[in-house]
């Protein structure tokens, strides 16, 4: 108790009001009222009914009753830590982002790692993509790089995201499986979505059962833009490279770990940071221009494609160190709100249709999840640079404009003003075309990079992919779905397809899939719903 506290707590007669008999702070209600007895409810006589007069009981239970907020619709299970980002060199030639101007400068960050499909209470070692979301508290506002540990994604257009997530999460009638991909709905959707084949190769690899968060890569996935002072744009892909290197566990280890300690990844991060063993990643970029982009036969706007590092090596531009655990899991890790649309001046979007959809989705979902429009007032989400605007009121408003003026322009000379030179300028890309719904032809090749990834793996890694596919598809009861998957694998690698097909006991191998999306007509005549005898 400080002297200041003691003065506040001292009554007119000098007695200490809010200091308990043993010198600790007095337990109070949320209204600050001191509590005499926190163990026994107010009642009539020793064995009589409880009384509505008991405002302490009512407030305590009321607050407890409202402790839960909706879990994230995806990435519900996560674990976060604080740290810093240190810039290696000035990137002023390509971006005017303040964070990349001065070598050696440190910017505070908060990072949340997560699984995607599992519920909040699911196990850490599920075979799943891991989220790798970084909030940089820059001098020009928050920059959120909301990435994954896999450099590509399942779908090319955000309009498919609800279907993809519905299919991946628990099936609605039985409410399982809670944390893994092995089920009919998931593989049904995947087998009907050829664009997911590159991602499927990655998720069937050991990458989706990482040994710990500390041994994972991270990727911004989409092509973004850096924009410099002269409004010139350079395309950029972001990569996180772990200092400890990349390590995974084997599937049989993952299964045992999940049983023995479902909190394995969070315990690992907690213990390493608490013991001063701070995990570190390098932020690397692939920078390229339009001419380079045009040299590929795939589209750099397609989030199911990578730019191979052999073709365009990554360039380290800074390091991320995690050195402090949150004081409170709920206040920080649960309430943190990452949003792809949080970009500072000098970082801009490309026309990747998945990224553009995400830019709508995150703000929308936070409104619901965090209970209103004022979630930026929470300390974990508030910028750490000066910020001023005329937003006011709403549920839980903790920051309202001070004084009379809450609008602009105003003639009282009060309040913040726009700054054409310092403010965010969107890259003035030229856009024209008809208003249409279509998938561009340049997004049509779904197999080449899936094949490249598979062939880039070592023989044991390739075996793991075959085993994972066999295990996953063996859990799928619908024969047509299994066969449809094999027909895709035939377009990726024939030996892989045959190995998996044989292990699944498929007698007559199907034909290789037509690369085009199957239509309802294609599906109707097939014995789509025959069920394997168990
Ligand atoms: C949450 C990554 C695609 C909607 C997250 C999180 C990550 C992430 C890391 C967890 C953030 C946290 O830790 O709080 C990605 C990546 C994507 C992708 C890398 C593709 C490249 C999408 C798409 C949509 C979407 C296409 C919707 C159109 C959401 C939503 C959340 C979320 C609604 C929950 C946010 C919250 O409640 O805090 N995503 N996502 N994501 N994502 Fe994505």
UniProtKB/TrEMBL annotation:
<dbReference type="GO" id="GO:0005829">
    <property type="term" value="C:cytosol"/>
</dbReference>
<feature type="active site">
    <location>
        <position position="75"/>
    </location>
</feature>
<dbReference type="GO" id="GO:0046872">
    <property type="term" value="F:metal ion binding"/>
</dbReference>
<feature type="binding site">
    <location>
        <position position="358"/>
    </location>
    <ligand>
        <name>heme</name>
    </ligand>
</feature>
<feature type="domain" description="Catalase core">
    <location>
        <begin position="28"/>
        <end position="416"/>
    </location>
</feature>
<dbReference type="GO" id="GO:0042744">
    <property type="term" value="P:hydrogen peroxide catabolic process"/>
</dbReference>
<dbReference type="GO" id="GO:0020037">
    <property type="term" value="F:heme binding"/>
</dbReference>
<feature type="binding site">
    <location>
        <position position="112"/>
    </location>
    <ligand>
        <name>heme</name>
    </ligand>
</feature>
<keyword id="KW-0560">Oxidoreductase</keyword>
<feature type="binding site">
    <location>
        <position position="72"/>
    </location>
    <ligand>
        <name>heme</name>
    </ligand>
</feature>
<keyword id="KW-0408">Iron</keyword>
<keyword id="KW-0349">Heme</keyword>
<dbReference type="GO" id="GO:0006979">
    <property type="term" value="P:response to oxidative stress"/>
</dbReference>
<protein>
    <recommendedName>
        <fullName>Catalase</fullName>
        <ecNumber>1.11.1.6</ecNumber>
    </recommendedName>
</protein>
<feature type="binding site">
    <location>
        <position position="369"/>
    </location>
    <ligand>
        <name>heme</name>
    </ligand>
</feature>
<feature type="active site">
    <location>
        <position position="148"/>
    </location>
</feature>
<dbReference type="GO" id="GO:0004096">
    <property type="term" value="F:catalase activity"/>
</dbReference>
<feature type="binding site">
    <location>
        <position position="161"/>
    </location>
    <ligand>
        <name>heme</name>
    </ligand>
</feature>
<keyword id="KW-0376">Hydrogen peroxide</keyword>
<keyword id="KW-0575">Peroxidase</keyword>
<keyword id="KW-0479">Metal-binding</keyword>
<comment type="function">
    <text>Decomposes hydrogen peroxide into water and oxygen; serves to protect cells from the toxic effects of hydrogen peroxide.</text>
</comment>
<comment type="similarity">
    <text>Belongs to the catalase family. HPII subfamily.</text>
</comment>
<feature type="binding site" description="axial binding residue">
    <location>
        <position position="362"/>
    </location>
    <ligand>
        <name>heme</name>
    </ligand>
</feature>
